[in-house]
Amino acid sequence: MVDVLLSLLILIGAGFTFLGSLGLARLPDFYTRLHGPTKATTLGVGSLLIASALYFSAHGPGLSLHEVLVTLFLFITAPVSAQMLAKVALHLNLHSVAPPTGDPPPVAHAGKAREQGPPDHPPMPVYPQSPE
């Protein structure tokens, strides 16, 4: 029963790791390439490490927790490093394939909305200042 579970974890880990590596190699820009190693590969390596911990706990003299510590370290550091890489890329104005989020999507009536202009806002109320 343990061998079946180990085989399943190894296959899942290898599949996720392969998909993450494929995403790293095939996706079009830096921002989308971050998803491969930080999401799929993290799950794949985590699954392989858990399979290793189960194997050495079942066939060794005692409980093996080294792999669990490495897995926790991996799950904590991978998202943080990806976020830091994305912040640096944004700071350096690295080009992205995705359209900017501030621009509205092109629609057929964009010219009519542009002619109307922004809505009128009431003036800000003026409050009397208190004497000091």
Written description of the protein model:
There is one protein chain. The chain is mainly alpha-helical. It has one domain (2-96). The protein has five helices and no strands. The relative contact order is 0.11.
Topology summary:
Blueprint: H1 2-26, H2 30-33, H3 35-59, H4 66-91, H5 110-116
The share of residues in helices is: 55-70%
Query: Into how many domains do the coordinates divide?
Result: 1
DSSP E strands, number: 0
H/E element string? HHHHH
Biggest sheet architecture: none
Report the end-to-end length measured between terminal Cα atoms.
82 Å
> What is the strand content?
under 5%
- Structure classification: mainly alpha
Tally of separate helices: 5
Rounded to an integer, what's the Rg over CA atoms? 26 Å
Q: Tell the overall outline.
A: elongated
What is the average of the pLDDT values?
80
Low-confidence stretches: none
Can you summarize this structure?
With 132 residues, this protein is mainly alpha-helical.
Notable features of this structure?
single chain, 5 helices, mainly alpha, 132 residues
